[in-house]
Amino acid sequence: MTRDLVFIRGEDITETVRAGLQFVACYHPADYLEHLIAAWHREESPAAKNAISQILTSSRMAALGRRPICQDTGMAVIFAKVGQQVVIDSAHSLADLINEGVRRAYLDADNPLRASLVSDAIFARKNTRDNTPAVIHVDLVPGRTLDLTIAAKGGGSENKTRFAVLNPEQSVADWVVDQVRTLGAGWCPPGMISVGVGGSSEKAMLIAKEALNEPIDMGEIIARGPQDETEALRLELYQRINALGIGAQGLGGLTTVVDVKVSSFPTHAASKPVALIPQCAANRHVHLALDGSGPAYAEVPDLNAWPEIAGDDTAGARRVDLDRLTREEMASWKVGETLLLNGRMLTGRDAAHARMKKMQGLGEPLPFSLKDRVIYYVGPVDPVGAEVVGPAGPTTATRMDPYTDMVLDQGLLSMVGKAERGEATIAAIARHHATYLIAVGGAAFLVSKAIREARVVAFADLGMEAVYEFTVRDMPVLVAVDSEGNSIHRLGPQAWARPAMRPSAKV
Q1: Which of 76, 135, 153, 475 has the smallest set of CB atoms within 10 Å of its CB?
Q2: Strand, coil or helix: 190
Q3: Number of alpha helices (DSSP H) and beta strands (DSSP E) in the chain
Q4: How far apart are CA 448 and CA 425, in angstroms?
Q5: Residues 371-400 pLDDT 10s
Q6: Taking the model in full, what pTM does it have?
Q7: What's the rounded Cα separation, in Å, for the pair 214 and 423?
């Protein structure tokens, strides 16, 4: 009957999505923050502990300043549970209402979020400029509310998604651990791993993605012990993954994941589809429910939730003048050493490197020189107010591996990014007596404070992928590959890997 229906205004849906995406851009979920703080307290690896401390410091700064946790403000992913007694009071579709909320969130003048989506994924790959459209999943359920789980998924972690169809007798746990071992650090640990098993290929992916938004409860499971087979599998995976020694940012350490989620669905007797989706250290999501009374808003977290991080982990670090840097100076850098960069550096990531390669193939000169320069793999958020640049953390360097010989041949001295480099790239770095440095992924707001000047020098049409020149002061980085080809992403996990308990039966 009509009196049993709940009418929800379309504008309230749009405003809820807008506010939700702005919220998740700036605030870590309380449960993730709690588990990350616990990981920081128990971490024994100095490099990993420093990385987590930078993430926590940057997180508090982002919350105080209401600015993005990470420069990759993600693809909007919305799970909508529509109560069957709900009437959406609008001439627009639910998708249109949600996408308008996304548009407003990413174009917010007070806190613009980085537009990362490109349309025509196969050919033109042109930036949509407002981060629409969102990926939307809708379920009709009993009830009188519209429940929205609003998430922002970064490219670094999304690119590490894995899928396989196992034989029914094969071990899910063994497959997951084998996959995580090969993921590298581009997904920005410490984070989460979610596993979906069953259904069809798309269903396994879907239930894995949705499970990422469930509350983090691994601490509770460890304290009381698993209560069913699924919890036992989750605990096993948590222990075995952390025993790999990958650690924060892949530097080697005790904590690679703070939780592992497992979700299952009935499947064909001949099949065992398994999806694995990592979640990065940003871990952005919020659950909001509309009941017809107006928009729904998330509660801003208590700033006392963040720990006081005493001391300066960069005290005594070597200061580097980028404007006078030489290969002879770089030869003295040791893998794992912390540096403070000062002076001018170029930026450039995927699209910029692709354009450089195209220009080189056509015999066209570049509009800038790479000789004796350092390049930072970054796509910053637009600045607001007095900011020189918005949050500007590193992007995954591995994607630039195919271009490394090209830029090193032009005299480039060093590169700054996040995550490991491939073996061929490491060999090229050593051959050119160059280096590779890493900034902490997930500490974008903290990193941006070291940038004192920024100007676009080329490829302005690429938006956030344009080439900038940054002037930096005491920007903290770590030597990930030295001029002899030693790699911390190989040495660190080797040093921190440890045995893990294995079950007697396959699950």
Answers
A1: 135
A2: coil
A3: 15, 19
A4: 27
A5: 999 999 999 999 999 999 999 999 999 999
A6: 0.93
A7: 37
